Amino acid sequence: MNPIDQYPQLDALFADAIARLDHAVRDRNAVMHAPVVVTADGDARIMVLRAADADLAALRFHTDGRSPKVATIAADARLTVLAYDPAARVQLRIAGTARVESAGPVADAAWAAASPLSRRCYLAEAGPGAVLDTAGSALPPDVRNHRPTLAQSEAGRGHFAVIMLRAERLDWLQLGRDGGTRAQFVRATDGWQGAWIAP
């Protein structure tokens, strides 16, 4: 099907992007569940998308507060998210400004909702990127190979943080034999403004 036939209106493309992100948050098997997140220094990593509101004012990711990306975001808040659906051949690029919260209601609620297994990585004795004496995990031996209890997992709270991205630009691209379809949306004072652009 020609993408123009499937998505005749710009607002339908924006709604499609929101629906894909919502599905990615709810379904851990969704193809966009773990997009590529790129900080302003060009460093890229896969991260799990934990929440995305309908206006893209708050996309949430979880991170270890000791991670180098936390300092990078503090120095330059620009962040880009890249997600791709290979079956539909749809690519989303979302750019905006991020902030890291390690305390407060958003971080507290995210921590409270996380399972003990999800919390386990924050129990690591060394932060991400730290040099280790030997290969392997930085997790303590008592939780390395099993799920911690809820009480055990609480020790990781001090290392837990959330990254909140406020999207300022959304680029929607569908590849196709006819050359594809692409639209770009920019946040304006009165909402999102979209335009068709060349793929």
Question: What would you say this structure looks like, in words?
Answer:
By secondary structure, the protein is α+β, with helices and mostly antiparallel strands. The protein has one domain (3-115, 158-197): Electron Transport, Fmn-binding Protein, Chain A (Pnp Oxidase, Chain A, Roll), CATH 2.30.110. Helices cover 25% and strands 33% of the residues. The chain contains 7 helices and 9 strands, in the order ααββββαββααααβββ. Strands 1, 2, 3, 4, 5, 6, 7, 8 and 9 form a 9-stranded antiparallel sheet that branches. A hairpin with a 4-residue loop joins strand 1 and strand 2. The longest helix has 17 residues, at 10-26. The mean pLDDT is 94.
CATH topology: Pnp Oxidase, Chain A
Give me the Rg, rounded: 19 Å
Query: In which range does the helix fraction lie?
Result: 25-40%
So what's the overall shape? elongated
What's the total number of strands? Answer: 9
End-to-end separation: 17 Å
Query: How many DSSP H or I helices?
Result: 7
- Main sheet overview: 9 strands, antiparallel
Question: Would you state the CATH class?
Answer: Mainly Beta
Structural class: alpha+beta
Q: How many domain units?
A: 1
Features of this protein?
single chain, nine-stranded antiparallel β-sheet, 9 strands, about 200 residues, Pnp Oxidase, Chain A
